[in-house]
Design a protein that fits this description.
Largest sheet of chain B: 6 strands, mixed
Order of helices and strands of chain A: EEEEEEEEEEE
Radius of gyration of chain B: 14 Å
Strand content of chain B: over 45%
Helix content of chain B: under 10%
Distance between the termini of chain B: 41 Å
Number of strands of chain B: 14
Shape of chain A: globular
Structural class of chain B: mainly beta
Number of helices of chain B: 0
Largest interface: A-B, 24 and 21 residues
Oligomer: heterodimer
Structural class of chain A: mainly beta
């Protein structure tokens, strides 16, 4: 199993500012994933983060808006840049390996005002 | 591209009655299938998963699901629901490709309401 810690758990931010979300895993993992869950909606994959390479973004998500760092095998950050109220969501970090379940952090509840 | 369909947005079931939540997927390869539950304000909890082998899988909290390749379905069942089962249920599918594990594709979720 894997235990994932996300910080912050929630935040209220002013529009136009940026927020960096941290994800710490208690074991080394090759791939980490970032998801967004908009209010009342399902989860949507933002990007896949591999250690030592650039993140791979899904359609509709771009690096300038959601820059991701992956400095080592246990840590990643997601930044939500130049925020607008439409960015108000829960952001979740996840790890998922071959023949294992997908583990999720508790999420970061972001409100942009 | 893969997709997951949960055709029921809301389901209302009486406490003690049986439950079946539907999930259909579109996938090119053999999928890895998951059911997650999310209670209000809570994180995602894995109920069960299917990778291979026996197509009937048992999960936590008395849930089970059956993988039917011919129907591209992975329906979740419970013989007798409890009021505490009221939550949002998500079906998800993943794949292991040559480059490693891909992120999961989630269905839109089914909101389960339990009536007394």
């Amino acid at each position: 199993s894997a235990v994932i810690s996300q910080k912050p758990s929630r935040d209220i931010c002013q529009r136009g500012t940026s927020l960096t979300i941290q994800c710490q895993v208690d074991s080394q993992v090759t791939m980490m994933f970032w998801y967004r869950q908009q209010p009342g909606q399902s989860l949507t994959l933002i990007a896949t983060a591999n250690q030592g390479s650039e993140a791979t973004y899904e359609s509709g998500f771009v690096i300038d808006k959601f820059p991701i760092s992956r400095p080592n095998l246990t840590f990643s950050t997601l930044t939500v840049s130049n925020m607008s109220p439409e960015d108000s969501s829960i952001y979740l970090c996840s790890v998922y390996g071959v023949r294992t379940e997908a583990f999720f952090g508790q999420g970061t509840r972001l409100t942009v005002v | 591209a893969q997709s997951v369909t949960q055709p029921d947005i809301h389901i209302t079931v009486s406490e003690g009655a049986s439950l079946e939540l539907r999930c259909n997927y579109s996938y090119g390869a053999t999928p890895y299938l998951f059911w997650y539950v999310q209670s209000p304000g809570q994180g995602l909890q894995l109920l069960l998963k299917y990778f291979s082998g026996d197509t009937l899988v048992q999960g936590i909290k008395g849930f089970e699901a059956e993988f039917k390749r011919s129907q591209s379905s992975f329906n979740l069942r419970k013989p007798s629901v409890h009021w505490s089962d009221a939550a949002e249920y998500f079906c998800a599918v993943g794949e292991i490709s040559g480059g490693g594990a891909d992120g999961l594709t989630f269905g839109k979720g089914t909101h389960l309401i339990i009536q007394p």
